[in-house]
Amino acid sequence: MFNLIDERWLVLRGRDGESVEVSLLEALLDAERYEEPVVDLPTQTPVLFRQLFLPVMVAALGAPANEHEWADRFGAGYFSSTERKKISDYLDKHRDRFELFHPRTPFAQVGGLRTAKDETKGAALLVATAATGNNVPLFSARSEADPLPLTPAKAVHWLLHAHCWDTAAIKTGAANDPKAKAGKTTGNPTGPLGQLGVVMPIGTNLYETLMLNLPIGPPGGRGQPHWERDPANSTWDTFDPPGLLDLWTWQSRRIRLIPQQTPDGIRVTRVVVCAGDRIRSLPEWEPHTTWNFRKISKKASERKPRRHQPGKAIWRGLDAFLTLEPPHQGENGPETSLLLRQIGDLQDRMPEGYPLRVATFGMVYGNQSAVVEDVIHDAMPLAVAALKPGSLPYDMLLDITRQAEELAQAVNRLSDDLRKATGADPIPWDKGQRPGERVLHALDPLVRRVLLGVRREADDHKRLEAGQLAWEKVAWTKTWQIVDTLFAALPAGSFLGRKTTQDNGTTVTCRPGAADEQFRRRLTAILPRAAEFHRQAAKDRRAVHQDPEPQPLTAGA
User: Fold this and answer.
1) Region label for 272, one of left (φ > 0), alpha (ψ between -120 and 50) or beta (otherwise)
2) What pLDDT score was predicted for residue 334?
3) In the structure, what pLDDT confidence band is assigned to residue 543 with cuts at 50, 70 and 90?
4) Which of 19, 99, 224, 468 could form a cystine bridge with 228, CB 3.0-4.6 A?
5) How far apart are CA 418 and CA 423, in angstroms?
6) d(CA 144, CA 129)
């Protein structure tokens, strides 16, 4: 009825920018002809790669055994005729398991799944952006009572999305699930991707993106995708993924799509969604996340996946992307993803100046992770050379992102001092918008231009150094534009200052002039190249106009 191998259910963007409908087989065999999937929600992108593209590729061709093999396959730029045949033969071998509405083994579902009372729910239950139960997105134009018929193509996307990102908490109990109570199961976690911040390297086309997301080895072993195993039953268990393909195709829910013939064709109008398998602990070889180490004792640290923060640009987490080695035992700190570290090791085998991009994906849950509040997605260019500690691109990018954060902190401190000078309390860090956020917003397009420039000129040190000066000069100007608005908002009487009592009991007078002086010192320390440029420019102006050096005032002046 609807086989993913042959039906044109995927939408990919071609090299000419046009969107093309293709089958799973066409997407893989001609991967070099397409750029990326066209999806309804950004979080569907890593789903397609982990649940389908990458597992089929690894299962049919195997993962590269070493760096040399990876470089040969990446350099080829497309699947050879032998590889194309292997992919076709592999999919033919498992053709029945890719049938979406197969009566016994429907793809990524449990055939015959039912509840004790044969209850079903609307297909909107699968759609993260649709109103259903407690999950009511802000400003949603739909209610749970409104039907949401899904075409088979849309149903596949949301089916796989639910396995990866579904909300947590209570799920419908399957009829033969002994752990179900009163027709429900409790304590269910979110889908596996909902528990981490997804980080994906992106190439210039689909083939290169597949290779960039292909771990060498692979660590943890090959494992099996769900279509190579016996069909899942309706009950769930908790265990560790036996291998990479098990992790990528994890069935975190037991689902059955219920198709219906309509005047518009087959539509999925009702579904059954129950608890699925739980991962006992995320393996250290999970390739699509960066990590945080949290000190738990003098000699031990706890390692957990980093979550993306809503509203925080991707470049503000650049330190984690470029931290290729974990911190020492018993220390706090980030560590980059397995795939970014691998790309850093492979940079000498990649084309010079390769236009790598890094994309992030995440889901923000609310109310005990039972509702979806927001979707996180961002992308940035990244110089492959920056994945080598000690290189100029590496040092430059870390300097720039550090400077941006420090500029925001300096403006926030200035704001606090100016508010004290008027008798007001500083803005709480967790309430309202602090002016430092305006600085980061103003610097965002500039930082992205710098990232693109560094990627393009990674091997030209003179241009990189000139670019770093240019960055500091513009950052200096942008920061002062925001600082000027803070001073302009001061009431006239505030320049006399206000007396405040510090925590140690001493009384000090807070004046805008003193706050301005402290801010200038901080700005000079944060942007030393721009500060030196402005000092030299002022000196040159005095020399041209033969202005005398300013003299200190005397009592008789």
Assistant:
1) beta
2) 94
3) confident
4) 224
5) 9
6) 12
Q: Report the 10 Å Cβ neighbour count for 368.
A: 11
Nearest-angstrom CA–CA distance, 287 and 199: 9
| Residue found by looking up tokens 């609310």 in the block | 366
Supply the mean pLDDT for the chain: 91
Residues 6+ apart with CB under 8 A from 511: 421, 495, 496, 497
- Per the DSSP assignment, residues forming a β-bridge with 206 are none
DSSP 50: I
Supply the pLDDT for residue 211.
Answer: 98
Element counts in the chain: helices (H) and strands (E): 15, 18
Alpha helices by DSSP H, 50-151: 54-61, 67-76, 81-93
Domain ranges within the chain, ordered by starting residue: 10-279, 394-548
Least confident of 35-44, 91-100, 290-299: 290-299
List the structure tokens of 2.
């609807």
Query: Which neighbouring-strand residues pair with 213?
Result: none
CATH of domain 394-548: 1.10.132.100
Q: Which residues contact 239 (CB under 8 A, 6 or more apart)?
A: 277, 279, 280
| 359 backbone dihedrals φ, ψ, rounded to 5° | -115, 145
State which amino acid sits at residue 385: A
